[in-house]
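Review this today:
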Amino acid sequence: MARPQGEPAPTDFELARVEAAEPGEGEVLIRNVWLSVDPYMRPRMNPVRSYAPAYELGEPMYGGAVGQVEASRADGLAPGDWVLHMHGWREWALAAARSVRRIDAEGVPPQAYLGVLGLTGLTAYVGIDDIGLVGEGDVVYVSAAAGAVGSSAAQMAKIRGARVLGSAGSPDKVAWLDELGLDGVFDYRERPVRDALRELAPDGLDVYFDNVGGEQLEAAIGAMRDHGRIVACGSISVYNDTAPSPGPRNLALVVTKRLRLQGYIVLDHGDRLPAFLAEAPAWVADGRLRWRETVVEGIEHMPDAFVGMLRGDNIGKMLVKVGGEG
C-alpha cells in the first residue's frame, strides 16, 4: 500500500482480512451492504493539513456506509435495523451506538441515505440555499451536474424557481440532465465551456455551483453578472494533480464584478440536517428530486469504483455493494 502519486492505482490499496469482534456495552456490530466512494476522499489521501485528518497508511478508508445491525448491546438499536455510519470501507463494522444513525428503509432504498437523502443531498441543499441563496428567477450553472451532488443541486435550484444550466462529460450524462428538466445542458468535452455559457446564458449567471474548479471555474467567473455568487463545493479536476495548478486567470473579475466566492464543508452545517430532512423526502416522493446510481459489486472492487468516480465514469452516485440485501 502507498499514498497515491497522481491518479490512485490498485497497488496503493490492500485488501485485509481481520476477525469481527463481538460488541461491547453501548456498541453494535454492523454488516455493511452499501459503501460510498466520494471525491473528498482523494485529497484526504495526501499527508497534508486539511479540514479533516489525512487517511493513515494501513487503516481503512473512512466514509459513508449503510448496513444492518447484526448484534447489539445498545439501547434503541436491534438486530435487523438499518443504520448509517462513517466507518467506511469494510464489510463489518464494530461501532459505538452514538456514531451511527438508524434510518427508515421502508419508503426508499437504504442506499439513498448515502446519496440524495444523506450527506450528498445535504451538501447540495446547503450550497443552493445557504451559500448560493438561490431564488426565483436566478440563472444558475452547475458543473458536473450528472454527478451525485451536482444532480441534486441542479434539481434543488429548479425547485427554488431558478433557470438551471448544467454540464457533463458524455452523451449519456447529458441525456440524464435533459430528463431531469434542466433548462440548458452541454457536453464540456464537445465544446468550450465559455462558448456554451455565452450561448445558454447571454445575460450572464447569478450563481455558479462549482464541483470542478479549473477551466470551468474560470469560464463561469467570466460569465457571472455583477454581485453573483459562486458556490465552491469541489474541485475534482485537480484532485489528482501532482503539482499546484494555476488559479483562474480572471480572478480580477471577482473584484470588478463584486462577486462572492465561498467555499464550504458540509460537516460544518449539521444544524441544517433537520431542515433538509423536513423537505427532501417529500421532493423524492413527488418526483421533484430524482437520482441515479452507478453500482460496483464486491469490496475487492472498491479501488476500481473510486478511480472510476474520479475519472467521471459514474452517472449519479457511485456505490459499492458488499452485502446480499438492500
Q: What stands out?
A: The chain has eight helices and 13 strands. The chain has a mean pLDDT of 93. The first helix runs from residue 119 to 131. The helical segments are 119-131, 148-159, 171-179, 193-200, 214-223, 252-256, 273-285, 302-311.
